[in-house]
Design brief:
Elements (H helix, E strand, L loop, with lengths): L14 E6 L2 H11 L4 E6 L5 E9 L2 E8 L31 E4 L5 H10 L8 E3 L6 E2 L8 E7 L5 E7 L25
Parallel strand pairs: 1-4, 5-9
Antiparallel strand pairs: 2-3, 3-4, 6-7, 6-8, 8-9
InterPro entries: Glyas_Bleomycin-R_OHBP_Dase, Glyas_Fos-R_dOase_dom, GlyoxalaseI/FosfomycinResist, VOC_core
Protein name: VOC family protein
């Protein structure tokens, strides 16, 4: 899974910045429920808000803005309304659809059970494959990732995922779609 970038030496995600409604509740979820250490906090100038960083492993961080003037959440626009197993996947162009955290395959089922025990609503396990439905009930040689989804207190869609096999050249086989092919709902 280590493809080489010939142009830049990128070392992963430094941080992904999201927006929350309540920083205290966000700390309780990300540090308390998910165990991510809070590693940096900032007050923004002129009373704009705060910017806090959580370590999500391997030197990567998930950051949150609490902004005094943020509009309310817009499920179905800025993020999916719910979880993929509930038929919810759509979000607007330019939005952040979900964050997938890499977890060890041998801990996958344990982590799902621990979240359920903590009162977090989790999706069924999805064994992603190349079948017409995109998922299978069981892991098989065509399964490339196992995952389950859940949401944080602000409705941000999160995923715990583990790769199940190495990718090959055969895994890049689809013609990219264009903006002209989108099915954009008409305004009524």
């Amino acid at each position: 899974m280590n493809a080489t970038n010939p142009k830049y030496e990128l070392r992963g995600i430094n941080h992904l910045a999201l927006v929350c409604a309540d920083m205290k509740r966000t700390i309780e979820f990300y540090s308390g429920t998910l165990g991510m250490p809070l590693v940096k906090t900032l007050d923004l100038p002129d009373g704009l808000g705060q910017h806090f960083f959580f370590d999500c492993g391997n030197g990567n961080t998930v950051a949150f803005f609490w902004l005094a003037d943020s509009p309310d959440a817009a499920p179905g626009i800025a993020a999916p309304k719910g979880r993929p197993d509930e038929g919810e996947l759509a979000s607007a162009v330019g939005s952040m659809n979900h964050v997938a955290f890499a977890v060890p395959p041998e801990k996958f089922d344990e982590y799902r059970a621990r979240l359920e025990e903590a009162g977090v609503a989790v999706s069924r396990v999805l064994n992603h494959d190349d079948s017409p439905s995109g998922v299978s009930r069981d892991v098989h040689p065509g399964t490339f990732v196992r995952s389950f989804y859940f949401q944080d207190p602000d409705g941000i869609l999160l995923e715990f995922a583990c790769w199940t096999r190495e990718f090959t050249e055969a895994d890049v086989a689809h013609e990219p779609r264009t903006a002209a092919e989108r099915r954009v709902p008409s305004a009524s």
